[in-house]
Amino acid sequence: MPISFNELVDDVMRRKPETIRVFLAFQMRCVGCPIACFHNVADACREHGVDPDLFLSALSAAT
């Protein structure tokens, strides 16, 4: 199942731990953050000023 913008950050990292390195590479310190269970991928990109399409592509390539 591909990763979508609507998935919660925590769910993505738990389901596909190989994506954690992508979050870190984009300087997104979502690993262990208490907000990760509330923010979806789109929210996290907006909060961190990351291009959502580029980020989603990187997440997909990591899996």
What features would you describe in this structure?
The protein has 63 residues and is an all-alpha fold. It has one domain. The protein is 51% helix and 0% strand. It has four helices and no strands. The chain has helices at 9-15, 20-25, 41-48, 52-62. The mean pLDDT is 95.
Layout of helices and strands, plus pairs?
Layout (H helix, E strand, L loop, with lengths): L8 H7 L4 H6 L15 H8 L3 H11 L1
Q: Could you list some keywords that capture this structure?
A:
single chain, 63 residues, mainly alpha, 4 helices, 51% helix, DUF1858 domain-containing protein
Summarize the structure.
The protein is built from 4 helices and no strands. It has helices spanning 9-15, 20-25, 41-48, 52-62.
